[in-house]
């Protein structure tokens, strides 16, 4: 984007300064166009610091030598940035839509071979049971002691979103799910973990219950709670419980 906005001959420095001033706006444009989570962008103030320092020095009419750190945009010639490789991006999107299921299955197979971490005996005996343990009934453990699937409380809202994402045969692709999940402003690393938990049948797509679960997990994370390493039994969507041991 920055390269595209640069003039071919004259006024490059002035345009560069203008683009640095507009960096928050440019971040928003790129988030919307490419469905990138805000958490995956570098700190905007840090990227602008070179430009801000130089402008502040001019206002005070102070002459100084300013050498910005290597990671500041002021240091770079925008016109020499490499062009966006759309074919590469399309290939990655295709991989997310079709190959992710295979990767998820491999990860779960490896995790199933690991012994469950546990501490027992002495003061820890029975500490996993009862309503008085830390965090009981909160965050990811909410709904553990009720019969109804807790996600169903808000499923009507999640369904409205789901059917705008063009489901085919009752499922949406990873690409379409990513567009909606990215609006949460969570980093892709967190959204990837949520995808792994929500894709119960590891087919690389989400049905309406799996999508509702993903939205519920996003809500839990945004409320400040940690995500589990494995999906608790009470959060498994009803239609997928028959597939679980």
From TrEMBL:
The GO terms describing molecular function are: metal ion binding
Coiled-coil boundaries: none
Pfam families this protein is in?
DUF5600 (PF18150), EH (PF12763)
Q: Where is the EH domain?
A: 154-242
Any one GO cellular component localisation term in the record: plasma membrane
Q: Which InterPro entries does the record cross-reference, listed alphabetically?
A: DUF5600 (IPR040990), EF-hand-dom_pair (IPR011992), EF_Hand_1_Ca_BS (IPR018247), EH_dom (IPR000261)
PANTHER family given in the database record: DYNAMIN ASSOCIATED PROTEIN 160, ISOFORM D, EH DOMAIN
Q: What's the protein here called?
A: (spotted green pufferfish) hypothetical protein
- The protein's organism comes out as Tetraodon nigroviridis
């Amino acid at each position: 984007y920055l390269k595209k906005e640069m003039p071919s001959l004259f006024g490059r420095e002035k345009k560069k300064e203008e683009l640095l001033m507009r960096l928050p706006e440019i971040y928003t444009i790129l988030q919307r166009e490419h469905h990138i989570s805000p958490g995956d962008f570098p700190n905007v103030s840090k990227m602008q610091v070179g430009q801000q320092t130089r402008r502040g020095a001019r206002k005070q009419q102070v002459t100084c030598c300013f050498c910005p750190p290597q990671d500041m945009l002021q240091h770079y010639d925008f016109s020499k940035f490499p062009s966006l490789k759309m074919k590469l991006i399309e290939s990655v999107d295709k991989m997310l839509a079709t190959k992710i299921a295979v990767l998820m299955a491999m990860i779960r197979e490896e995790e199933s071979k690991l012994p469950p971490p546990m501490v027992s005996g002495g003061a820890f005996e029975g500490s996993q049971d009862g309503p008085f343990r830390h965090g009981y009934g909160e965050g990811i453990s909410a709904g553990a002691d009720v019969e109804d699937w807790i996600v169903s409380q808000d499923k009507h809202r999640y369904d409205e979103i789901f059917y705008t994402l063009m489901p085919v045969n009752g499922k949406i692709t990873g690409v379409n799910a990513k567009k909606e999940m990215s609006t949460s402003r969570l980093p892709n690393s967190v959204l990837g973990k949520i995808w792994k938990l929500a894709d119960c049948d590891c087919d690389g797509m989400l049905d309406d219950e799996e999508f509702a679960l993903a939205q519920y997990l996003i809500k839990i994370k945004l409320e400040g709670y940690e995500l589990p390493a494995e999906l608790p039994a009470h959060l498994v969507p009803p239609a997928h419980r028959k597939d679980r041991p």
